[in-house]
Amino acid sequence: MTLVSDLLRARNKRSYFLVFFLSLALILLVTFLTYENKTLNFKGEVMGTSYKVILVDFEDSSIEKDIFNVLNSVNLEMSTYINSSSISYLNATNINEWINVSNNFIEVALFSQETCLSTGGSFDISVGHLVNYYGFGPPELSNSYDTGLLEGLKKEVNCFSFEVDPKEKRIKRTQNVYLDMSAVAKGYAIDLLSKYLDSKSINSYLIELGGEVKFKGHKSSSEPWVVGIENPGSINTPLITLSSRDNKDLSLATSGEYRNFKNKDGLIVSHTIDPSTFKPLKKKHVSVSVLAENTMKADALATALNVMGPDQGLKYSNIHKIRTVYILKENENYIVKTSKWF
Asked: What residues contact 48, with CB distance under 8 A and at least 6 apart?
């Protein structure tokens, strides 16, 4: 009986330790999974649109104020809706009058000029007078243009309508143009926030601002970030999805006419001005999306390729190794066409 009792006690002891270790392992697993999936979510409005930021494995909620301040810093400099912004001040200066601006403003202005040249003028921030005329700028300017005067202003629009002096941190208009950075500022704001989050050693995050998106890392080890290119026929439903498993540090921007348009004198008017015709865009495609190494580039190229249209745009994308997706509508069906790099 003693031997049997000893065996039973030993078995019970082993069972106890087995249960203990299994319980401990379960607790550690649950703790790990809980920690792994811990996210901070922030939402707000800035730059005339909404934003969403998701941070993974970061617990300091006081960062919410900093997130808004970083995004708003771009707004305060580059919004034509703010009278005290740098761009509003620049647009009110005399021709060839230098003004000092920030490094951020210089960076966006230089990039805009370079992109204007590289795209043959398809991206041009000097079309602001036309943007205002068709009602996509500050409301008080939409009815302030005489048609005859507007025709004359068209001659001023070109890639060299402003000059940048990065050494002295200054800029001037060389022509009577109204600069509008709305097609690049949101992308730059996302990149600026991304750099800030990197400086805080936040390795996984997603930023969305007015439809432009950037993510880094993964939502968790078992769950990637997933973003979609919207189906124009079913808004809020993705036609194409992109995952962080296949795209590292993705930056995505879309330019399209199915959401941002106006009805002017009974006609549907696109928000994108074609610098070659000086009229709102009228193309057979519905939208174009671009993946790039940063969101400012994706934002600007999406506008440029929107102006070019799918034939010229895909040719340009294939030559310049741009990951591009066009969505076209043919016979009530949506067709997807991509560059060979997508």
From this structure: 79, 81, 210
